[in-house]
Amino acid sequence: MIYNIYTKKEIKERPQRKKVTLESYVIGKNAPTVIICPGGAYKFVSDSNEGKPFAEKLNAEGYNAFVLFYSVGSGNGRFPYPLLDVARAMQFVKSKADELNINADEINLMGSSAGGHLCAFFASQYKRFEKEYNGESYSLKPKSLVLCYPVITMGELTHKVSRKIFLGAFSGKTEREKASVELNITSDYPPTFMWHNKDDTSVPAENSIMLHEALDKTNIQNEIHLYENGGHGIGLAKGADAEGWIEKAIAFLDKNNGKLPSELI
Q1: What is the CATH number of domain 2-256?
Q2: What is the pLDDT of residues 160-202, one digit of tens each?
Q3: N or C: the chain end with fewer CB closer than 10 Å?
């Protein structure tokens, strides 16, 4: 099922919101949930590679999943629109927890490349987006994060196309620092799993390394896996050095979502 997460009134106010949707992969069972933000340099949403395959794998391991088609493209992918979409997606899912038989207290985020930046940055900014939704207030702190070859910094080692779309063509040092995840880590940051290929020439592995070091300095639980070869945008990484990363990520999710061995599917 595909959900429009903005109301007709909100879409009328900003027509681009009509394209912001959540694709549902729900198994129910009062299980935890992962909202997936595929990559695409904030230009497009790479669902076929980093959305549906992840969701199906998560389902097989006992997780509910949703793929978020967030705001992308020139102007539309600009801060803060994608962040507002993540906030609304979390509000929407939490508001439907009883109807869908999911655990509203265990909502995780998974993102790849620019989608990894979106999830990681949102986790540092979520309190700014906690507003009343349909008469209810929800915590928007993710239970944990899974980041696949994420864009982390908006500095020298960033993915320049992602930065240009997210911050605009003429962003300055102040804007870039405010949107660099590694510079915005606090003790409130959620547990984080990340992986990267060392030969990634699109988004250098230093992005994940910088985040790992920042999380360590703040004593935030995190796990990093670096692989020798594979490049960028390889999704489940079948046949590559990183094959099996998703099993490691699910083990991390299990630990942080209180899943017992008997609950695993």
Answers
A1: 3.40.50.1820
A2: 999 999 999 999 999 999 999 999 999 999 999 999 999 999 9
A3: N
